Amino acid sequence: YFLPSFQIIQALYYTISLVNDFVGSNEVMPKKTPLIRKIKDYMMTTFAFPIALNVGITFWGLYAVDRELVFPRVLDAVFPSWLNHIMHTNIVVFIVLEMFISFRSYPSRFKGLAGLSAFMLAYLVWLHVIKHYSGVWVYPVLEVLQLPQRIVFFIGSLVFTLGLYMFGEVLNNLVWSKELKMAQRKHK
């Protein structure tokens, strides 16, 4: 009953990207940006990039400290290590590659951070709904944390993810600085 949200976001993002390839535009500065391209850019910048990095960094960081906190050894029999890498490593590799090979326009910082914050808060509520009805935390690390520690963990995760959004914006501006300067000149 639980499909990780990052998988849904990645699947949606890459599906929208494919649709954009057929009916949208991949031009750096199209005369009129198609709606599908605007959706693609917003999804990449606001959800796909920061959440993929959060998932990869947090998962492997906790795994290095104590794998039982995120991926108990008992799962090895039914969940092979290569599949674990597809879920927690490849998403980072591919989203970073996407940042370098496909130009995108970042939304205003307010719109981007507001959308990401709303998603993160909704996800936090969803985690608690699952815990309420199943009696089990989706992530084993939450089982070992006391309430004050969980609150700090959730706040830290939110701040970390918002920081990853900012990192994505800075990285995008560095990678695509020439194209962004041309766009600024065009709109003057």
From TrEMBL:
InterPro entries according to UniProt: ADTRP_AIG1 (IPR006838)
Origin superkingdom: Eukaryota
Entry's transmembrane regions: 42-62, 82-101, 113-131, 151-176
UniProt subcellular location: Endomembrane system
Catalytic reaction equation(s): 9-(9Z-octadecenoyloxy)-octadecanoate + H2O = 9-hydroxy-octadecanoate + (9Z)-octadecenoate + H(+); 12-octadecanoyloxy-octadecanoate + H2O = 12-hydroxyoctadecanoate + octadecanoate + H(+); 12-(9Z-octadecenoyloxy)-octadecanoate + H2O = 12-hydroxyoctadecanoate + (9Z)-octadecenoate + H(+); 12-(9Z-hexadecenoyloxy)-octadecanoate + H2O = 12-hydroxyoctadecanoate + (9Z)-hexadecenoate + H(+)
Keywords annotated in UniProt: Membrane, Transmembrane, Transmembrane helix
Membrane topology per record: Multi-pass membrane protein
Chief place where the protein resides: membrane
Stated family: Belongs to the AIG1 family.
Protein's name in the database: Androgen-induced gene 1 protein-like
Organism ancestry: Eukaryota, Metazoa, Ecdysozoa, Arthropoda, Hexapoda
Originating gene: LOC131803822
